Amino acid sequence: MNMQWRTKEFGLCMALAVSILLLMVFMGSAYGIRVLVEASCYAIIALGLTIQWGYAGLFNAGIMGFVAIGGFSAMLLTFPVNQGFWSSDQASDLGQAFLKLLGAVVIVWAVVQLRRLSVPRSIRLPLLLITLAVAYLWVVNGFAPVTQAIVSQHGFIGGFGMPVWVGWLVGGILAGTVAYFIGHICLGLRSDYLAIATLGVAEIIKAFLKNSEWLTRGTLTVSPLPWPVPGAGEIGFITARALYLSVTAVLIVIIFYLLHAAYRGPWGRMMRAIRDNELSSAAMGKDVNQRRLEVFVLGCVLMGVGGAGLATFNGIFDPNGYLPLNHTFLIWVMVILGGPGNNLGTVFGAVFVYVIWVMSEPVALFILNTVSYLGNLWFAWEAPSDFASRALQARVFTIGLIITLVLRFAPKGLFPEKVQQYS
Amino acid sequence: MNELVFFINNVLISGAVIGSIYALGAVGITLIFSILRFAHFAHADLMTLGAFFAFFLTALFPAIGPALGLPTAFVMLPLAMGLTALTAVYLDKAFYKPLRAQGVKPIVLVMASLGVTLMLQGLIRMFMGTSSRSLYIDDRKGIHRIDVPFELANRPIVITDPQILLILFLVVAVIALHLFLTRSKLGKAMRAMSDNPDLARVSGINTQKVVTVTWIIAGSLAAAAGTLLSLDVSLKPDLSFMLLLPIFAAAIVGGVGHPYGALAGGFVIGFAETLSVFNWAVLLRPFRDQLWFELPANLAFVPTEYKITVPFFILLAILVWRPTGLFKGKVL
Questions:
Q1: Domain limits at A405?
Q2: By C-alpha distance, which of A25, A30, A40 is closest to A237?
Q3: Is residue A353 part of a domain?
Q4: Rounded to the nearest 5°, which phi and psi values hold at A158?
Q5: Which of B36, B91, B105, B118 to mutate to test the interface with A (most CBs of A within 10 A)?
Q6: What's the ipTM?
Q7: pLDDT digits over B76-113, tens only?
Q8: Where are the beta strands (DSSP E) in chain B?
Q9: CA dihedral for A353, B122, B226, B96, sign (positive or negative)
Q10: Is B145 helix (H, G, I), strand (E, B) or coil?
């Protein structure tokens, strides 16, 4: 049995290696390495998902939100400093706006603490709502003129000019912080609620990044983001990308090793116990919600780091490029096809699915052109002008189909999780 | 008085309209949740699909509406509802029933429903493109301007045909659903199954039939909501995207598994949205001189581009303070 699985895994990996080689041969090695770098960033994100779904059974439907936070943080912390803004009056005005925000938070916190003075609930609740509304309007009206002035005079506040690794690290921390609040609210409830809440939070993060022009330049996008390794201008495309690939590969190896150790250790056993039988592990005295929160935050940290790596590699931060539903489920396909709970399977799935995803575009266009050419030739059929953009929607359909088929026919994925049996 | 008319047009009427849409969607979600015990994410796409069925039928028979004096898409609504219900039943047969038969966890069904969402979205965009269309092909949208019998008010209250039809449809649908659930044998079987599926099965209720009926009701309500909304605004493939979060928020606010709660939740979310993007400065402007602070030009709680955050924060607040919803939901 064990032997069979090994040959199957080996065969799958060989097939993947061959397809990557073919990609390199046909599309050129610069393009091939680019695909590999992007796939490696997706692999980090997918590892984040596999610990949420595979280790703990948590459904995160808002992956792109956390990925976008990572990208945003990479942009904000590493982009060169905008001297024009920092030497102008707006810098201190913005500071005052943030002080107002801090003041509002303190006041609201104080109203919440009225509970300790045994003020009855019937007074506290209306008071809290009124304070919230007033504080909110006060803060919003404090920010509005400053941010407008920044946008009209300086474009945006610029970055902090820090080293790239700081941006990636902070990206992970920010994503984890958001995840903490969401998880804190939703993890005690049925798992469906987490799905709905994460879906919503991804939308909101995207709306915020898109509309906060003073912070992110919105639809104007920010580029070029600095790289952690010498760029293409200095040492050539292939070398630069290969260096970048080695950075992400080292990251994956580290994360992989740590996750593997955690999975095999007592913590991993406890997580699996909670996933497979929540009731009995709660009866054994495990704090189910706390453990789930841990794993949810950890997974989102990885998503943030992966997202930061992706944005840095692309060199551009474009809030509109994050499509919450479609890209989120691309990552879901990577995980459930590769094998949830199996780290090797997840990395395999990430590279495999991403290569297919990238290749499907030229293949689909080729098929389309053939179809419209033949249609015109044989039936005098005039293809609609937006035929190509429409037909690319077939990819969305295919992702959906793959998800439903894998769930039904191969729920454990290509590399099933190997649960160690102790007899 | 003009300010008040502005308030009625922008808050009362549009809140009631969008609230009815959310309510129709949320009732379907809550029914599916109480019978099949999973959050059906593809529901908003069923709404879009229903609207597209109505669009096809309108394009096929554009002359029927003007002959009857109603929008053609509305005349075609029963057919579109039937087609969507049929689609919903077959989607269940193809994608959810095999998973249920394997006895998977509910969250796997949620994931499958997201897979179905993507498939429906891909199909709709593949065949219809991404542009927006009008459901009025040969007829025009009737707009009623009601003059307010007060002095000082020279702006009329504006209400359109689809808005009136929507409110009428909602009333009829709710009464019909109420009678169905309380009087008919099948409706009682549904309620029994939502209370305790095992007990329902051993007492001889045909659970498969109940499941089918649930999909029929949810599918046809979704089609009606989608069609009526696109009649009022326009038909876009992105429709489902804007609806997904609010209808879930409405179902949870009302208490999951509680059809009347979903109705109330829909209106709560609808009015909350319109109230929060409403510019309160308009109402305060007549009292400009008595105010102790300078009136800003825009005093909306939420800028329109952040409208989507409103249902989300209501959802979070409900989850924190009262996870069972306003009306105690059964299952959690």
A1: 323-423
A2: A30
A3: yes
A4: 80, 180
A5: B118
A6: 0.85
A7: 899 999 999 999 999 999 999 999 998 888 888 988 99
A8: 143-146, 157-160
A9: negative
A10: strand
Taking contacts as CB-CB distances below 8 angstroms, the residues of chain A near B112 are 403-404, 407-408
| Phi/psi at B145 (5° precision) | -110, 115
**Alpha carbon A353 to chain centroid distance?**
16
Domain spans, chain B: 2-242
Query: Residue holding tokens 């990044």?
Result: A209
Q: What is the pLDDT along chain B (332 residues), one digit of tens a residue?
A: 777 888 888 888 999 999 999 999 999 999 999 888 888 999 999 999 999 999 999 888 888 877 887 888 888 899 999 999 999 999 999 999 999 998 888 888 988 998 999 899 888 888 887 778 888 877 777 788 877 777 666 778 888 888 999 999 999 999 999 999 989 999 889 888 888 888 988 988 888 999 999 999 999 999 999 999 998 888 888 888 888 899 999 998 988 888 888 999 999 999 999 998 888 878 877 777 777 777 777 777 888 888 888 998 898 888 888 888 887 765 44
Residue from A140, A125, A300, A412 nearest B302 by CA: A140
Query: Which residue in A322, A288, A293 sits closest to A308, CA to CA?
Result: A322
In 3D, which of A59, A71, A132, A35 has the Cα closest to residue A320? Answer: A71
User: Does residue A83 carry a pLDDT above 90?
Assistant: no
> Do B238 and B256 form a contact (C-beta atoms < 8 A)?
no
**C-beta atoms surrounding B13 within 10 Å:** 18
The conformational region for residue B329 under phi > 0 = left, psi -120 to 50 = alpha, else beta, is beta
- By CA distance, what is B249's nearest residue in A? A196
B312 Cα to chain A: minimum distance (Å): 6
For the packed helices A237-264 and A343-379, what is the interaxial angle rounded to 10 degrees?
130
**Spatial contact of A272 and A64, defined as CB atoms under 8 Å apart:** no
pLDDT tens per residue, range B193-243? 888 888 988 988 888 999 999 999 999 999 999 999 998 888 888 888 888
For chain A positions 385-414, those within 8 Å of chain B (CB to CB) are 386, 389-391, 393-404, 407-408, 411
Q: A108-114 long-range CB contacts below 8 Å, 24 or more apart?
A: A108/A132, A108/A135
Task: Name the β-bridge partners of B160.
Answer: B143
Residues of B in contact with A62 (CB under 8 A): none
How does pLDDT run across A114-151, given as a tens digit for each residue?
888 888 888 888 888 889 888 888 888 888 888 888 88
- Using the CB atoms, write b or e for B138-174: b if 16+ within 10 Å: ebeeeeeeeebeeeeeebebebbbbbebbbebbeebb
Task: Give first-to-last CA distance, chain B, whole Å.
Answer: 47
What pLDDT was estimated at residue B329? 62
Peptide bond into A224 cis (omega under 30): yes
Nearest CA in chain B to A208: B306
Residues 43-82 of A with CB under 8 A from B: 57, 59, 61
Chain B residues with CB under 8 Å of A208 CB are 306
Domain count, chain A: 1
Give the contacts of B191 (CB within 8 A, at least 6 positions apart). Answer: B181
Residue A10 lies in a domain: no
Indicate if the pLDDT at residue A384 is higher than 70. no
Verify whether the Cβ–Cβ distance B303 to A190 is below 8 Å: no
DSSP H stretches of helix in A50-120: 63-78, 83-86, 89-112
Q: Confirm if A114 and A122 have CB atoms less than 8 A apart.
A: no
Candidates B109, B111, B324, partner chain A, best to mutate (most A CBs within 10 A) = B111
**pLDDT score of B264:** 92
